[in-house]
Amino acid sequence: MGFNIGLSGLRAATSDLNVTGNNIANAGTAGFKQSRAEFADVYAASVLGSGSNPQGSGVLLGDVSQLFNQGNINYTQNSLDLAINGNGFFQTSNNGEISYTRAGYFGTDRDGYMVNNFGYRLQGYTVDANGNLQNGVVDDLRIQTASQQPQATSSITQVFNLNSTNVRPGNAGTSAAPTFDPSDPLTYNSSTSLNIYDSQGNSHVMTQYFVKDDATAVSGGQNTWVMHVLIDGLNPLDPQDAANTPMSFNVAFDTSGQLSTITDTVGGTAGTGYSIDPLTNEITFLSDTTGAAGDGWIPATVDTTGASPTGFVWNGALGSTDNITFDPRGTTQNASAFSVSSVSQNGFTTGQLSGLEIDDTGVIFARYTNGQSTVQGQVILASFANMQGLTPVGKTAWVQSFASGEPVIGTPRTGTLGALQSGALEDSNVELSDQLVNLIVAQRNYQANAKTIETESAITQTIINLR
User: Fold this and answer.
1) What is the structure's pLDDT at 49?
2) Are 328 and 280 in contact (CB under 8 A)?
């Protein structure tokens, strides 16, 4: 019996040495979780029991469990490296074979899929053809590296203040004001510009000129302005119009300086190429559909052939198919300098992919050279009721087992799942000083059990030598 007890001790010490050695070997492996050898004593059983003072029969390896405590976060220079700070595992797919890992070595393959250093594809919520995140649809995450197609401007929002102390240009006491001339700043009080885009991503400058109209003959008097609109310094409806006739609107304010009404210069709410919503004061600039004068805004370019008398022709592109809505709500007339407090428009030109960002909730943003950013997907995490039940399969990965239970899928920072850190990796959670001490203890245990066998051998030899 002594030989068996000593032999079981040797086996246990060998297992302990193997587990400790594996921990030490993986002290520098990102996402590695240290293991612990767990032993149990053995007692022989008999039909009538062994009484209250049984003799032990040795030791056995009860289990090799893994400790899933957090490793240190180590920052890298790769924005696609990911670390989990808290609970959860990355879910990866190798041709449909699902595994789970804490090692966040990620990059892209030649097809744009996010893969780890073994080529396994990272799983997450993907986006549809319109760039909308599809929550609940888990698939391979893919980075769209193609150029971003241009988008024609369909919405402009602008809030500005007109100086109520301004007077009409020219002689304010007469019934006539100087003829508006965009090249002569003495014919208007203030102006502002912004870029808008056509269907091919060409940039155009939309300029608004504001003229105070305080003639006593005009209804509203001191609270009425005229807003002239030119695009690229041209008539928006006909770039070959020699007079460069602007679209013009009456902008009226109430006595508190709040925007009251916007009408065209003859008092209506509709004209050639535009319409006005009388409830919201939003102006809709129609988009040309044929390139013929009068249908709506005609994107223009310089005539290089010299055939056009004014030097500008249709550039072959169109405006947004949804037309262009100009929203000036919030505009005021107060006794302060002219200023534009906010302006935005939703058009942009063609863009090249310039970088990627992943936030702590796993949302992947792609940045483009045109200043735009789009969502490319969202990384998911998986958690298990019994992490100890996961089966390690190497390559710093685990697979689901019956003991682990089903994975619970979610996005970072939801429920019990941790947060993501982009540009970082989680270090191994092995504490080398502890493992080196364990190595010494396992070595002593091995030596002691070997001594048990040696002693048993000596006793047996004594019995054999009896005469």
Assistant:
1) 58
2) no
Numbered ranges of CATH 2.60.98.20 in the chain: 155-345
Rounded to an integer, the average pLDDT of 305-313 is: 69
Give the separation between CA 68 and CA 387, rounded to whole angstroms: 8
447 sits in the region (left: phi over 0; alpha: psi -120 to 50; else beta) called alpha
Helix axes 2-25, 432-464, angle to 10 degrees: 160
pLDDT tens digits, residue range 111-142?
A: 999 999 999 999 999 999 888 899 989 999 99
3-state DSSP assignment of residue 8: helix
pLDDT for position 218? 45
The class that CATH gives domain 155-345 is: mainly beta
Q: pTM for this structure?
A: 0.77
Scored b (16 or more CB within 10 A) or e, 97-136 reads ebbbbbbbbbebeeebbbbbeeebbbbbbbbeeeeebeee
**Per-residue pLDDT, 348:** 95
CA–CA separation, 393 and 259 (whole Å): 69
Contacts of 352 (CB under 8 A, 6+ apart): 147, 148, 368, 369
CA-to-CA distance for 436 and 367, rounded, in angstroms?
Answer: 47
Give the position of tokens 């805004």.
297
